[in-house]
């Protein structure tokens, strides 16, 4: 395995119990680790906890007990932020802000180059929409903008929750290409019921499987 020691394991979850409501844990004594390189598809039935896993890795949702470590850092610690990217299913955009301004603003927050973000957006097919306010974007174009905003700059781990949903052919191709590039140097957790044919998936993990297996080569 190449890379720095912190990248050997992208996400390490040990004896995790967590959830939203007292007495109703989504995870109970759950452990898994994902390798520091490559794309792992995280699958599982509706309600099995895939998005909850993303929330725990984002540090937003705190474990009741056990640990969630991302790129060698506690997911809840501010130092983890620079190493991970999380793209939730629902775009969180400012309705009156243009696509261009979203990208500039998000780039500044991530310490990334705005010009590179604008170029990526054009490659996804957003070139004609850069001056449009978010409220005027179609569902797919909002998702493209959100995807680029959530994956700016350098990172060790990207957790993408159903990122292909709503994308056209150009968007799917571009995302699949980018995921391959990221997978060379980082870990990509692809939360998806089905990965599109364009995507390269190195391993799959079934959440909610009775024996909670470790990620396996697919
Ligand atoms: N904000 C919340 N408050 C309370 N319960 C929640 C919340 N979000 C999710 N849950 C519950 O947590 C459990 C896991 O939900 P989660 O969204 O993580 O599943 P999922 O595997 O992503 O599902 P899907 O495939 O439908 O997207 C479900 O029982 C769900 O109802």
3D structure, described in words:
The radius of gyration is 17 Å and the shape is globular. Strand 4 and strand 5 form a beta hairpin. Mean pLDDT is 92; it is low at 1-6 and 212-218. With 218 residues, it is an alpha/beta fold. Strands 6-7-8-3-9-10 form a six-stranded mixed β-sheet. Strands 2-1-4-5 form a four-stranded antiparallel β-sheet, with helices on one face. It starts with 8 loop residues before the first strand and ends with a strand. Helix 2 packs across helix 3 and helix 2 (99-110) packs parallel to helix 4. The chain has helices at 50-58, 99-110, 114-123, 139-150, 169-185, and strands at 9-21, 24-35, 38-43, 65-70, 73-74, 84-87, 157-161, 187-191, 203-206, 216-217. It has a single domain, classed as Rossmann fold (3-Layer(aba) Sandwich). The protein binds adenosine-5'-triphosphate. Residues 20-21, 26, 44, 46-52 line the site of adenosine-5'-triphosphate (ATP).
Would you summarize the structure shown here?
Residues 11-217 form the ABC transporter domain. With 218 residues, the protein is an alpha/beta fold.
Task: Give a quick account of the main beta sheet: strands, pairing sense, barrel closure.
Answer: 6 strands, mixed
Using the coordinates shown, work out and report the CATH topology.
Answer: Rossmann fold
Compute the number of structural domains.
1
**Text of the CATH class:** Alpha Beta
Radius of gyration from CA coordinates: 17 Å
Helix content: 25-40%
The CATH architecture: 3-Layer(aba) Sandwich
Strand ordering within the main sheet: 6-7-8-3-9-10
N-to-C series of helices and strands: EEEHEEEHHHEHEEE
Tally of DSSP β-strands:
10
| Tally of DSSP helical segments | 5
| Ligand species | adenosine-5'-triphosphate
Integer average pLDDT: 92
Which band does the percent of strand residues land in? Answer: 25-35%
